[in-house]
Amino acid sequence: MKIIAGKWGGQPIPSSRPSEKLRPTSEKVRESVFDQLNSRFIDSWEDAAVLDLFAGTGAYGFESLSLGAGRAVFVDHHLATVKHLKKACEHFETTAKTEVLCKGALEAIRWLYQRGDRFDFVFLDPPYREDWMLAALAHLHSYPLLKKKGLVVAEHDKREALSPSQAVWKPEGARRYGDTMITFLSPLFL
């Protein structure tokens, strides 16, 4: 798995041995996601704050940092994955502007909100078809972590309907890549 663009473009992301629990986002999908973000949703990555929930390999967060994001928080509840994320942060020399949390996603959302953190982008890439996506979106509504004009980038199975998630999220576009869907969402009420 490699970084696609930015200052680390072409470099591999140091990660753990492949695991059946990890389902890394393909480079093709990530490239399309960041092309859309750059063309439609962001003028500059400088100072952007990014939350990579269900981080796994951390591909979304590291790609954002490579493009110039000012800060990234990685959240995963598997201790071995968290250790590899920390090693990757050291590898890319980003420990000063990254934080790796070993927490469940829902707990992390509440904890980060109470701490006062706010983000420009929240990347959601939970296990497919396990209801984590809707639960995470509900928590992000209850504990609004997005800055004004912030965006959720949700990666989910094509069979998972996000049906504007109980009318609290505004769809800003969606793309399908095989079994994978990417849906961009902004909050209706901030």
Terminal-residue CA separation: 36 Å
Question: Tell me, what's the shape?
Answer: globular
Overall number of structural domains? 1
Tally of contiguous helical segments: 5
Structure description:
The protein is α/β, with parallel strands linked by helices and 190 residues long. The protein has a single domain, classed as Vaccinia Virus protein VP39 (Rossmann fold). It has 5 helices and 7 strands; from the N terminus they run αβαβαβαβαβββ. A 7-stranded mixed β-sheet has the order 3-2-1-4-5-7-6, with helices on both faces. Helix 2 links the parallel strand 1 (49-53) and strand 2 (71-76). Helix 4 (105-115) packs parallel to helix 5. It is globular. 40% of the residues are buried.
Which features does this protein show?
5 helices, Rossmann fold, alpha/beta
What topology emerges from the helices and strands here?
Layout: H1 27-41, E1 49-53, H2 59-66, E2 71-76, H3 79-91, E3 98-102, H4 105-115, E4 119-124, H5 132-142, E5 146-157, E6 169-177, E7 180-187
Parallel strand pairs: 1-2, 1-4, 2-3, 4-5
Antiparallel strand pairs: 5-7, 6-7
Helix pairs in contact: 4-5
Quick structural overview:
The protein has 190 residues and is of the alpha/beta class. It contains five helices and seven strands, in the order αβαβαβαβαβββ.
